[in-house]
């Protein structure tokens, strides 16, 4: 029996994450992701996905020091970033520059140290290219800042507020890993040939670039901008539903109830009610939309997905839409590399069959 897109086909076993779509749970190495966003940093969750356990205080200090040591880009990578056409989109830039990072250091079996280096470098790649396009001086990474705080600092040249850092850190933890999605599968297929880590990550970036997978939450921003203020919410949403338009940011292919990532993001944003008009609007729109969706599509259980609140966060931290998917990539690289490591430890090359439907002469 053919399963288009391999939907429902179990192709491997993993200890990295588990998605329970019926109950709305996302588990990283046995831990509920919502609990991780409340108690742990980006670095601690990355350690968990790579090593399988949360770090001790001593282990975390050493881990942070090593991550920070890889933030600076080599001169040849900066030259490549400067040489690429201005019209090249950021995901294509990342695909090219990550590929160029490939060297003799990555020809051996994938290691956690390789994963750390690539994860640490990616925010710097994005920030460097963004400043180049804007015609502004590149902001060098700071060694006294955490991974997410430093990313925002490099992008904007000023220290972010604690609320901004917490919001983006929550988002980046929630999007680190999400099972055997298209880009993760792509990475594992490449790794299964015993190719190097750089090649596998490059495959994943190329897959993430596709709008059906890594499409940024730009459409959610368009919806919120069209609504503009709380007074317009019901009128705009009713018009869209009556015209059979899709409400962007609602519903998910996997989750049949609340998307746990959206729940965790909302929990973070509720701490900032009244501090940002855009976030307040998003919270109001969600409540109204869920009520109207139940009215127009009863029994469908359509709730907000992670993209809805991701859009609100990106807007609140003044991130340009061109950086949405690259930022998603800067978090998902942790999950990709964890899967690459797992694939290399118990490898079988992927080789599915296909059914020929052409002519036989």
Automatic annotation (TrEMBL):
Keywords carried by this UniProt record: Transferase
Pfam families assigned to the protein according to its UniProt record, in alphabetical order: Citrate_synt
Pathway: Carbohydrate metabolism; tricarboxylic acid cycle
Catalysed reaction, written as an equation: oxaloacetate + acetyl-CoA + H2O = citrate + CoA + H(+)
InterPro entries xref list: Citrate_synth-like_lrg_a-sub, Citrate_synth-like_sm_a-sub, Citrate_synthase, Citrate_synthase_AS, Citrate_synthase_bac-typ, Citrate_synthase_sf
TM regions (residue ranges): none
Coiled-coil blocks: none
Family label: Belongs to the citrate synthase family.
Name of this chain's protein: Citrate synthase
Phylogenetic classification of the source organism: Bacteria, Bacillati, Bacillota, Bacilli, Bacillales
